Amino acid sequence: MFLSILYKEWLKVRLYWVIAFLLNVALFVYLFIRLRHLFAIEHDEMIWYQAFEIGTLHYSHIKYLLIITGMIIGAAQFIPEMLGHRFRLSFHLPVRPNALALWAVFIGLFAVSVICILDAFLLYTIIGNFFPSEAAKSALLTASPWLFAGLTAYVGTALIALEPQLPRKLVYIAITGGFVWLFCQGSDYESYNRALCKLALISLLFFPSAILPAYRYRNRSS
Length: 222
Known about the structure:
It is a single chain. The protein starts with a helix and ends with a helix. By secondary structure, the protein is mainly α. The chain contains nine helices and no strands. The protein has one domain (2-31, 61-219).
């Protein structure tokens, strides 16, 4: 049954996942070309001074990339189902409704996580190609909150789409927006090193909360 659910969810998001995948790759290709051009027209000492003394983040344009990715996948996965009330048909499957909702969110979260891992790999590889390995590790630590923000944006989008009651939708929008905003406040290298684990653990609470809106939708309760 899990394979059937997996296949159904993949059919819903595959086109949008590919679009998001290509968008992420394109922006990292842009980062590589930009850095290569920068090293071609500037002295290495100047670029290093900008990066390590002034604190210029040459990869700051990817800050909201995974947030957009998470929102795209979440919206593509749940909004059409809720608008057409097709999600209710899934509750007739021989699977507990709670498990069904969690599996659906887990599959979407996995799809976003694959792109998240790709982004981390590309960022580390590209920065490591132009700077020492210490700079590449620092780039991963600096960008980690942005990646967690993308995962939070996906789960928040799923919750907002699954919730049948407008007032609660507004509450989920506020909570999701607050967490995403919190993850994106840092503008320096490794600004979240001391708080990242705590914020990541708190954001994981979004995942099991998908049970509640799915339950209310199934039972049309307030």
